[in-house]
Amino acid sequence: xxxxxxxxxxxxxxxxxxxxxxxxxxxxxxxxxxxxxxxxxxxxxxxxxxxxxxxxxxxxxxxxxxxxxxxxxxxxxxxxxxxxxxxxxxxxxxxxxxxxxxxxxxxxxxxxxxxxxxxxxxxxxxxxxxxxxxxxxxxxxxxxxxxxxxxxxxxxxxxxxxxxxxxxxxxxxxxxxxxxxxxxxxxxxxxxxxxxxxxxxxxxxxxxxxxxxxxxxxxxxxxxxxxxxxxxxxxxxxxxxxxxxxxxxxxxxxxxxxxxxxxxxxxxxxxxxxxxxxxxxxxxxxxxxxxxxxxxxxxxxxxxxxxxxxxxxxxxxxxxxxxxxxxxxxxxxxxxxxxxxxxxxxxxxxxxxxxxxxxxxxxxxxxxxxxxxxxxxxxxxxxxxxxxxxxxxxxxxxxxxxxxxxxxxxxxxxxxxxxxxxxxxxxxxxxxxxxxxxxxxxxxxxxxxxxxxxxxxxxxxxxxxxxxxxxxxxxxxxxxxxxxxxxxxxxxxxxxxxxxxxxxxxxxxxxxxxxxxxxxxxxxxxxxxxxxxxxxxxxxxxxxxxxxxxxxxxxxxxxxxxxxxxxxxxxxxxxxxxxxxxxxxxxxxxxxxxxxxxxxxxxxxxxxxxx
Length: 611
Ligand code: FES
Ligand SMILES: [Fe+2]
Hints:
Elements: H1 16-31, H2 38-45, H3 49-55, H4 59-84, H5 88-99, H6 107-119, H7 124-151, H8 156-159, H9 162-182, H10 189-203, H11 239-250, E1 255-259, E2 268-274, E3 277-283, E4 289-293, E5 308-310, E6 314-316, E7 323-325, E8 330-332, E9 351-357, E10 360-364, H12 372-375, H13 377-384, E11 392-393, E12 398-402, H14 406-413, H15 419-422, H16 424-431, E13 435-439, E14 442-448, H17 457-465, E15 479-485, E16 489-493, E17 498-507, E18 510-519, H18 525-556, H19 571-583, H20 595-610
Antiparallel strand pairs: 1-10, 2-3, 2-5, 3-4, 4-9, 6-7, 7-8, 9-10, 11-18, 12-18, 13-14, 14-15, 15-16, 16-17, 17-18
Helix pairs in contact: 1-2, 1-4, 1-6, 2-3, 4-5, 4-7, 5-7, 5-10, 6-7, 6-9, 7-9, 9-10, 9-20, 10-20, 11-20, 14-18, 16-17, 17-18
The structure holds FE2/S2 (inorganic) cluster (FES) and fe (ii) ion.
FE2/S2 (inorganic) cluster binds at residues 296, 298-301, 317, 319-322.
């Protein structure tokens, strides 16, 4: 099925053929194509089998005529819409109206359409009726999109997006038809229509033409310069998108929680907060690391209170004293007899998935997707010599709350084009050799500390004090190496230490930035001096980046947020955006969909991308 919907055929009482075709549609809906018989059609039409045989000699003839009738309805509806107005936006809106007309987009017609679509792979006579018409209609919709992109004076690069966006529109309509067949009792065609109009409003260069009093939300911003390469400004300010990011990304992807050395002894724990979720990681009495929601099963208190600590042999909730063993089982409940029927064995802490990679601890809220080991396999060899798993914490985690969107934090971090201009100390440290690259889909950045004189004190001292770390291969002994771990973390390796930093969104313009560093156990004063000096350089760099990110956040609120001006050496920014769009396709929209339709639209776009 494609962009078009059937119009109602005239239903003349005396038109037996039409009556039988309608009965056929109903039987296909109820029993499926393969179980249809002429007798069932006769029964449905309340006619005798001999009358059916009089009009249709075979079942095949009846099916083919039914398909042609539905297909012609469909095509006629599209023709009618295109004949109404030469204006492409009006035509698109009218198409939505026609295709999702509740009289026409019926479960029965949808079932017929999909049944024949399925069969058409194997049947040449069906292909003519189903696929050729579908392609012809799709072509007309693509032409409308291309015209609108051209009329908006879009760049050549953006013109290339017209066809895929048109196909997504097509798929969106299909998804409503499919839902109408599968969920006939709950489908809300008015809401689905709004989702489709929202989609058009969001992806068309100049939005939808609302001048004739449509009920579309007039607050949707229309910006001429928005593009489809980088994320649009709304993606950094939308509350509804923030919610979607938390559910689609941060609950589903692996989150970095810490390092083995943070929880090295029995009863050691650390905690992490991701959006509204609270996590605890604890080492149990069998030395196994476990992760749980840090939510007491009684009334929801935090079970362990601090960001890191040791809870001894049990975890005791500070509120009423419920006590959990280190493997999460509920062990004791004060005054248990006062609960009417509390099943202690069923009230253990709720576990989370946990995986350790190279000493780093990752947790995940929802199962599914690849293990960390597979996702990071491509860089495993590259980092092996650093012996990250043997390292120990060099101090507490650093946590700061910042007033910008988490993606801007990574937009700045994902390219080194700004290093010469924005980071004079880093430029002196390794700027001459700095480069960004990818290993598979993992962004990797490298800079080799040179021996040129430096004016920044920390840099000059670091260059002269950095010891030769014999356990590293020669080429790594003066290398600063960073890997981007999608979606929100960076792990880095310097000769004298390693560490991570990551962003945790708290709202569309609020982010918590957490960082922590680790080193191999050592008493060397040179190594400690180098660790201190690289920390100073990083602090300086962080402050400089902080200002840049804030300015980007400000820019998202201006009326001239620029897009798609990336140099080749900023490819990391675009790759990050593309990965985000794959996970949350609604981010492809140029303009913000309405908050109410954001999730529905995203689900439909995801389903159409998968199908
Ligand atoms: S909330 Fe934990 S014991 Fe009551
Ligand atoms: Fe930077």
